[in-house]
Amino acid sequence: MSELTLRVTPDWDVVRGFWPVSTGFFAGQGLQEETVYALSMIAQELLENAVKYGHYPDDAHGIAVSLRVLKSEATVEVKSPAGPDDAPLRRLDDTIQWIRGFQSPFEAYMERLKAVAMSPPSGGASGLGLVRIAYEGQAVLDFYINPQYELAVSAVHRLPDGSPAGIPAAKADHQPGELAVNRA
Amino acid sequence: MNAAPLPLPGTLFGRDGRFTVQLKFATNASVFANFPTGTAPPDRSEFDGLVLEVEDRAYQLSRCRLEVEEAQVDPRLVFLDDVYDFSALFREHRMVDLRRVFHNVALVIAQKDQVSPQFRDYTANTVYDLSVYKRFFADQEAMLRKEPASVREAARGALLRAQRTRFFDFMDRGLLGLRQVTASFDDEEHKRHGYYFRRHVWEYIQGAPFLARTNLKPRGYAGDSHMMEMIYEDAFKGNSVFSMLLHRHPLASAAARAVRNRRTMVPLVLRRVQREFQPLPPRGFRFLSVACGPAFEVCDLLAEEPEPEHFHCALLDQDTEALATARAGIQRVQRARRRKFSVAYVNESVRTMLKRADQVDRLGRFHFVYSMGLFDYLTPPVARAVAKRLLELVVPGGTLLIGNYHVDNPTRRYMEYWMDWTLYYRTEAELQALLEDAEAASAELFFEDTGCQMFLQVRKPG
Fold first, then answer.
1. Average pLDDT for chain B
2. Which of A139, A156, B237, B386 is deepest in the core (most CB within 10 A)?
C-alpha cells in the first residue's frame, strides 16, 4: 500500500494549490493519466466541500487528507471538523445514499442536472460536486463521523486489473511551505 | 391554503407596439394580463415577447398570444415557443426554463454510442422475447376476463404453476447470456451497459413489484425492510401472470436465498454464543442487531426460544419504517406467546453513531453483536471504523458477526442490470482486513449454503 497523509489549511488558495500534490502522488504510483486526473478531481472536490461546509472555530482545526493506493483500489479521504448541527449530516447521508442508489452514476448525474435546471440553487448546495465524484471520478462515496467530531468523507475508485500495485510512493512534487500543506 | 401571489409588472412587445401590463398568476404555464393604461389588444394577438420585472431583475420571455376567455376578466397569455414555470416565478421569484432539461437529451442518447454491438443484440433479443411472453400471457388472461373471480383466480394459479418452470428457465438462460456478454466489461462498462439495458426493459421492470421497488428505491436506498419482506415472503405478486412471474424470479435467485438462509443461521450462531455464557440471569444475554431491518430472525428466535426472558435485544436502524416493522413483528410474537420481551429500538445511522464516545454507556455492551446487509454498502474506510466500533460494544468473550456478499455472487449481474442494486462486494481477505488490527481471540470466516454471502465471526478475548 502507498499512502500520503497531509494536513491542509482550510483556505481556498491552499486547496487550489493541492492539485499538483495529488497528481504528483497518483502519477508516482504508475497510474494511467486519466485515472490520475479522476483521483485528483475527487481530492479537489472533497477538499472544496471540506472548506465550504467544515466548522473551523480556530486555527487549530484543519483538514486532513489521505491518498491511498492499493492493488485493486485507490481511496481519497478528507476529514474536516463537523459543526454541532446534525441536519447537514443527515442531508449528506441522504445525498450519498441517493447517489449510490444508481448502478450507473451517469443516471444520478442526469437526475441532478435535471433538478438543478428545474430549480437553480440560490447559494445553497446543488449536490453536483458529489455526483461528479461518482460519475466522472467513477468512485463510491461514503462517510462517517469519528469521536473527535470529524466528518470523514471518502471516495473509493476501483482500479482496473493489472494496475501497478505496491509501488513505493513517489515523493510528492511540492513544497509544503509554499502550499501551507504539512505532512502529518 | 396558499395566498394568491402578488401581480408582477411587465411589458409586452411586438409589431403593434409596446404594452404595459400587470401580470397575475393563472396556471403553472400561463398568466393573466391586465392592461391598466388602455384597452387590451384583440383576442389572439401575438407578441414577440414579454419582459417581466421580478424584484430588481428583468426576464425576457419568448413569443406569446393573448386569449380572451368569457369567464375571465383579464385575457390569458399563452407561450408559443417555451414552457415556463410561473408557479416558481410568482411564488418564489425563481425563473425556471424547462427547456434546460431537454439540453441533456443529447447526452443521454449519446450513451448508446458507447454500448457494444453484442450487448445491443443481447438487449434487443431479450426485449423481443419478453414481449412475446408478455403477449402470450396477456392473451390467456384476456380469455378469462369474463369468468367469475373464483374461476379466474384458479386459472391464474394453474397458469403460474404450469408456466413457472418454463419462464424461469427462459430468464435463467437470459441471465447466463448476460454474464457471458458482459464477462469482459470493466466496472465503468457495466454501469454504462446497465443503464442502457434498464432503459429497454423499464416497461417490464415497472410491472413486477420487487423489480420496481429495487429500481425506484422509495426510501432512498436499496434493500429496505419492505424489499426484505418480499424476499422472505417469496410469493407471487403483480397485476398479471407475466408480472407475477417476473416478480417471483429474482426471489428465487441465489442472492435472495442467501437472505433467507441468514434468517435461520443467525439464531443458530446466537444460541452457540449464548451457551458459552450460561448461566445468566433474566435479560442477562444481551444481543444487538445493527441495521436490523425487519428483524424477522429476532421474531423467529423469540417465537421459538423456551425462555425468551433471558434475552435483552437491541435493534438499531437508521430507517424508522424498518424499526416500526420490527416492532410490529415482535409485538405479534409477544401477543401470541403472552410474554413480555426486553427489546430496545435505536433509531440511528451507523455512519453518525461513531461520533458518540459514550456509545458503550448509552447502549451497554453485548454478548453477541451482528450485522447483516450493512457492510455490503460500506466502503473500506467506513467499514473499518464501524467494525472497530462494533467490536468495542462486545463484552470480553463475546462475538461479533458481520455478513458481506462475496465478489463471486452469481446473482451480481442480475442485481446490477435488472434491479439497479449494487453492493460493495468483498473477497475473503478484504472482509478479514476490516478487523485485522483488532484484538481477537479467534476469527473465523464461513459461507451460507448458496455461497453468495460470507460471514466474519470474531470472538473477543475473554
1. 92
2. A139
B202 in Cβ contact with B194 (< 8 Å)? no
The CATH fold assigned to B257-459 is Rossmann fold (3.40.50)
- Of the partner residues A94, A120, A140, the one whose CB lies closest to the CB of residue B424: A140
Q: Where are the beta strands (DSSP E) in B222-292?
A: 285-290
Which value, to the nearest 10 degrees, does the dihedral of the CA atoms of residues B196, B197, B199, B200 take?
Answer: 130
Residue with cell 409485538: B331
Per the model's pLDDT, the better-predicted residue between B1 and A118 turns out to be A118
> B416: nearest CA in chain A?
A103
Local confidence band at B361 (pLDDT 50, 70, 90 cut-offs): confident
Domain count, chain A: 1
Give CA separation, B198 vs B118, B213, B280, B411, B419, in Å.
16, 14, 53, 16, 9
- φ, ψ for residue B251, nearest 5 deg: -75, -15
What is the identity of the amino acid at B303?
A: A
Spell out, as residue ranges, where chain A has pLDDT lower than 50: 120-124, 165-184
* Residue B97 DSSP class: B
Let me know if domain B8-103 sits in CATH 3.40.600: no
Cα B256-B257-B261 angle, rounded to 5 deg: 120
Q: Find the radius of gyration of the CA atoms of chain A.
A: 16
pLDDT at A115: 66
CA B421, B427, B432, B437 torsion-angle sign: negative
The pLDDT of B205-210, averaged and rounded, is 96
More confident residue, A30 or B104: A30
Direct distance between the N- and C-terminal alpha carbons of chain B, in angstroms, rounded to an integer: 64
pLDDT, residue A175, reads: 37
Q: Residue A46: give its domain's CATH number.
A: 3.30.565.10
Stretch among B21-30, B47-56, B97-106 having the lowest mean pLDDT: B97-106
B180, containing H or E segment = helix B149-181
Domain that holds residue A29: 2-183
- Among chain B residues, the shortest Cα distance to A73 is held by B380
pLDDT attached to residue A65: 96
| A123 close to B (CB below 8 A) | no
The answer to whether residue B51 scores a pLDDT higher than 90 is: yes
Per-residue pLDDT at B341 exceeds 50 = yes
- pLDDT for residue B36 is more than 60: yes
Residues 6 or more apart in contact with residue A137 via CB below 8 angstroms: A38, A39, A41, A42, A45, A155, A157
**Residue spans of alpha helices (H) in B291-379:** 296-304, 320-337, 350-353, 359-363
* Domain spans of chain B, in order of start: 8-103, 114-252, 257-459
The interface residues of chain B toward chain A in range 346-405, judged by CB-CB distance below 8 A, are: 349-352, 354-357, 377-382, 385-386
Q: Report which DSSP code applies to B147.
A: S
Indicate the residue of A82, A86, A152 with minimum beta-carbon distance to B381. A152
